[in-house]
Amino acid sequence: MSGCLLAGAMVIALADGAGFTLEWQHSVERQSWRESWEVTDDRRLRLTEAAVKGSGAGMEPGPGGRFERGWWVWAPALPPVP
After folding, report:
1. Pfam family example for this protein (predicted)?
2. Which is higher by pLDDT, 57 or 47?
3. Are 8 and 18 in contact (CB under 8 A)?
4. Would you state the torsion angle of the CA atoms of residues 68, 35, 38, 73, taken in this order, to the nearest 10 degrees?
């Protein structure tokens, strides 16, 4: 929940086209997870890149994932969120 509030605050604070990265540790697998987001011209959020350091339950890299410097990295093909 706090992540959603933070993301909403970022949209208010960031200019169109600006971006930010969230990083946290998976609660079960204890592996790092990272997401890069961008604010679109119509003030929505678009996930531009996701990465996991390791693998485990619910942590499989998405289609087109590649291994870079210890991270599985991919660009999710998802529509922007309000």
Report:
1. DUF1850
2. 47
3. no
4. 20
Flag whether 80 is in a domain: no
81 domain-assigned? no
Q: What is the mean pLDDT of residues 21-50?
A: 91
Q: What is the pLDDT of residue 80?
A: 95
Backbone angles phi, psi at 62, to 5 degrees: -75, 175
Query: Which range marks the domain in which residue 68 is found?
Result: 2-74
Domains contained in the chain, number: 1
In a domain, 82, yes or no: no
Report the 3 state secondary structure along the chain. Answer: CHHHHHHHHHHHHCCCCCEEEEEEECCCCCCEEEEEEEECCCCCEEEEEEEECCCCCCCCCCCCCEEECCEEEECCCCCCEC
